[in-house]
Amino acid sequence: MTTTVEFYFDPISPYSWLAARQGERVEAAGARLDFRPVLLGGLLAAHGTKGPAETAAKRAYTMRDVLRLAARLGLPVQGPPTHPFNPLRALRMCIALDDAGERRRFGEALLDAAWARGLDLTDDAVLVSLAQECGLDGRALLARAGDADVKQRLIDATNAAVAAGIFGVPTYRIDGEIFWGEDRIDALLWRLQGNTIDETLLTKVLARPASAVRKA
């Protein structure tokens, strides 16, 4: 039986793109990726944290790191014309798709468009064109993204991710266990092979009190 691995992503994240481009590694282990769009800004707000692009040193490091990883994988990189950018319409169009295969296809197209092709995902014409390239009715999907129920669907999906302990993207989730970051694919594959950690030890470690608190 094929194992389903939930894949939480936001096209604002270059690591989401790098992770998606390595999906075949996960599938080779007998798993199926279920693409789940979420708003990274919502995750960050819920946990009281900042995104890497909001800290100058992290932003510079992130972009250098992405270029390194892409070069290692043989992937072309352009990057979006602005960053951070507003991914709401793109995410809403993606989450409006009920079919898992269509949602994955469009999600991959969004990620590739921003990071490999350098397209502007805040441009409605770009979004419509991408949907058309995926064999979808781009104009109808863009209109659907403006519906109140679709907007709420993205809010609910992001809140559900927060409730599941997800704080960033990309994140893989299997049987309630999360693997955060493109660099955790190997750990995910280890888990898919049937390996597990000592949950009793983890509970003990997490129950230990803090002896220092950083001042704001």
Output mean pLDDT.
97
Q: Briefly note the CATH topology name.
A: Glutaredoxin
Radius of gyration, whole Å: 18 Å
Q: Helical region count? A: 11
Q: How far from one another are the termini?
A: 49 Å
Structural class: alpha+beta
Tally the structural domains: 1
| Low-pLDDT windows of residues | none
Strand content: 5-15%
State the CATH class: Alpha Beta
The percentage helix is: 40-55%
Largest sheet composition: 4 strands, mixed
Q: What is the N-to-C succession of helices and strands?
A: EHHEHHHHHHHEEHH
Can you characterise this structure?
Strands 2-1-3-4 form a 4-stranded mixed sheet. The protein has helices at 14-20, 23-27, 40-47, 56-73, 88-95, 100-115, 124-133, 138-144, 148-163, 185-192, 199-207, and strands spanning 3-9, 31-37, 171-174, 177-180. A hairpin with a 2-residue loop joins strand 3 (171-174) and strand 4. With 216 residues, the chain is an alpha+beta fold. The termini are far apart. It contains 11 helices and 4 strands; from the N terminus they run E-H-H-E-H-H-H-H-H-H-H-E-E-H-H. The longest helix is centred in the first third of the chain and has 18 residues, at 56-73. It has one domain: Glutaredoxin (3-Layer(aba) Sandwich). The mean pLDDT is 97. Helix content is 52%, strand content 10%.
Can you give keywords for this protein?
single chain; 216 residues; alpha+beta; Glutaredoxin; four-stranded mixed β-sheet; 11 helices; 4 strands; globular
Please specify the SSE layout and strand pairing.
Layout: E1 3-9, H1 14-20, H2 23-27, E2 31-37, H3 40-47, H4 56-73, H5 88-95, H6 100-115, H7 124-133, H8 138-144, H9 148-163, E3 171-174, E4 177-180, H10 185-192, H11 199-207
Parallel strand pairs: 1-2
Antiparallel strand pairs: 1-3, 3-4
